[in-house]
Amino acid sequence: MTPGRLVAIVGVAAALVLIAVLVAGSASSGDSAPGATVARAQLPAVGVEDQQSELGPLPEPADASRIDLTKPPRLAGFRLNAPSAGLAFDFADGSVLWRRNATRRRPIASLTKMMTGLLAAERLAPEDRVGITRAADRVGGSRMGGLRPGRSVRSEVLLQALMISSSNDAAVALAVGAAGSEHAWVRFMNRRAKLLGLRCTKYVDPHGLNPGDRSCPADLAVLAMRAMAEPRIARLARKRYARVWPGTGKKLTLRATNHLLRDRYPGAIGLKTGFTNAAGHCLVAVIERGSRRIGIVLLGDEDPWASARRITRAAVRAGVFPRG
After folding, report:
1. How far apart are the first and last CA of the chain?
2. Closest Cα partner for 115 from 43, 200, 53, 196?
3. Residue ranges of the chain with per-residue pLDDT less than 70
4. Is 125 strand, coil or helix?
5. DSSP string covering 135-181, please?
6. CA distances for 324 relative to 75, 89, 95, 265, angstroms
């Protein structure tokens, strides 16, 4: 080996040693390249935690929204055969007051909008602007009207229309505006249902017109408890009417579809109604008196308003709920 070649090899080795020292010193001093640090910090989480951060928090505490089907109903001897399926429960502890086919899966019509409303409240701030697409303009059934494609509307206006007057166009507008498409929104709905532990619930659209939107009274009771824990939903669910501006033209008057609210039934504070030919009349009612609150889920009932009143009276007679 010639002296010149030996010098070259030594020089290369020295350079490699110097580079290694500089890299080690940089790492130990915390001065690593900004890009590398950000890349490590932004590695996505895997599993339920990632879904939870994307879709919103689980109920706090996590076991607050559970229905206890293991114990006998507290309204001993009370019978109500009008609904195809139903459940009455105590918000305080999830104990069952009355039940009928509590885990039977049925079409739920616009009770579907409870999940759309919950997700919208979790993902959109009240002042967020939602772009209106032709999909919202084409949907049938109950509508708030005035939603012109190409315009943008405050999310709070759409949420009011969804929860008060059960507007299908508002449901589609929220879904497309927040998720990019109805299909993507429905995926969010089903993932959120899974996170909440809803075992018999499946969604196929954001509004409930499709009979494929299905659930059972036990799941809907859990969802009702979670929805009423969301301040925006709880505030809107009790309104008998609201005046809103859809982004163009005159203000619109939204009127509640919940007859308990419209009739000022003592303690009625929500929550959601629904009707299709496949589902029949459906109702999730929430009654609050003093510090006590009960929920009533009725699916496929010819007169859910009368049934809800009967259940409430039975709870008063049994001493588990105050008089109005």
Report:
1. 104
2. 196
3. 1-65
4. coil
5. HHHH--SS------TT-EEEHHHHHHHHHHS--HHHHHHHHHHHHSS
6. 18, 18, 21, 9
* Separation of alpha carbons 96 and 94, rounded Å: 6
What sign has the CA pseudo-torsion 169, 175, 178, 181?
A: negative
**Residue 66 belongs to what H/E stretch?**
none
Give 281's strand partners: 275
Distance CA 180, CA 183 (A): 9
* pLDDT single digits (tens) 196-225: 999 999 999 999 999 999 999 999 999 999
CA 290 – CA 320 distance, rounded (Å): 12
Treating both helix axes as pointing N-terminal to C-terminal, what angle do 113-123 and 168-179 enclose, rounded to 10 degrees? Answer: 40
Catalytic positions, written as ranges: 110, 113, 166
Sign (positive/negative) of CA torsion 217, 222, 224, 225?
Answer: positive
Residue type, 32: S
- List the domains of the chain with CATH numbers: 73-317 (3.40.710.10)
Structure tokens at 175: 């879904």
Neighbours of 62 (CB within 10 A): 10
Q: What are the beta bridge partners of residue 68? A: 95
Write phi, then psi, for 131 (nearest 5 degrees): -75, 135
Max Cα–Cα distance, the chain, nearest Å: 108
84-111: b (≥16 Cβ within 10 Å) or e: bbbbbbbbeebebbbbbbbebbbbbbbb
Q: pLDDT per residue over 121-164, tens digit each?
A: 999 999 999 999 999 989 999 999 889 999 999 999 999 999 99
Tokens encoding 114:
């409870």
Query: Tokens 């009725």 appear where?
Result: 298
Return the amino acid letter for 218: A
Q: Could you please report the per-residue DSSP string of 73-120?
A: -SSTT----SSSEEEEEETTT-BEEEEESTT--EE-GGGGHHHHHHHH
* Structure token pair of residue 296: 């009533």
Task: Indicate the residue type of 15.
Answer: A
The whole-model pTM stands at: 0.81
